[in-house]
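WARN no homologs supplied; continuing
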Amino acid sequence: MNIARRKSADAPFAVMTAYDAAFARCAEQAGIEILLVGDSVGTVVLGYDSTVPVTLEDMVHHTAAVSRGAKHAHIIGDMPFGSYQTSDSEAVRSASRLIQEGRASSVKLEGGMRAADRIRA
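OK structure emitted
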């Protein structure tokens, strides 16, 4: 799925958060085309008070589970706090793990314009 093309064509699409294979399978069967594996897994599933304790390993694990459950959806892996802020090389390594090990189609990170150079890396 080309998200930019769909957006520029004003073609609607649904995005939903998923944390495991079973939920991903149900979402895909319901017609959801894009699944976000958010760092909110920390508060929703892992019992943390915030998303700050979520590790890259947590995100790789849950992204891989969602990828196994959804065979056709575009999977977005959220890069957790601390996995990309230090350097461009750290950001690339973290994104690579989410894509290679977690089988994410793309990654998401927060920071807006402050993070633009990091995103280009």
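Strands lie at 15-17, 34-37, 74-78, 106-108.
OK
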